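Every protein is a chain of amino acids, and every chain bends into a shape of its own. The protein below has been through that process, and both of its lines are reproduced in full.
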Amino acid sequence: MSTHDDTPRELQAATLFGTIESVDVATATCRVRSGDILTDAVPWAAQRAGTTRRWSPPTVGEQVVLLCPGGDTHGAVALLGLYTTSNAAPSASADEDVTEYPDGTRIVYNHAAKKLTATLADGGEIDITATKIKITGDVEVDGKIDCTKTVTATEDVIGGGKSLKTHPHTGVQSGSGTSGPPA
């Protein structure tokens, strides 16, 4: 049984700073080292874990706060997300929400500029599966576009400076002949 004199020591042991030593993604647990202490497998606190779930496992070397109820590491939970010199903050802007991945991919939303930027690492791809995708606004593409079905335009399509709706043809003749290419 603890005495009143033990309370400060128990409170101090209830919260420890540590570093992720290993991660078991199959069980969503990790082992944390804090000084000479190495925990058994303990869960990490996820951003969301209800009907909406977020998966972002910790990495070896990541600094955490270890919450140890009653000072016992057997029931501990690792709170993720302390920046360190080796794992510095990916931004210093109060206007940005940034996610940075180990391959160099970055997703940045700057609410002051109202701009979302996604930069994928070399060789990266984006796959979107949806019944319908609606884009309101102008779209610029710097690269080729491949389409496996019909392309529909309510106004006009312009290719190589030629209007699909209004371009004239050369070599027009009556009858069953074919006109020449667009002028």
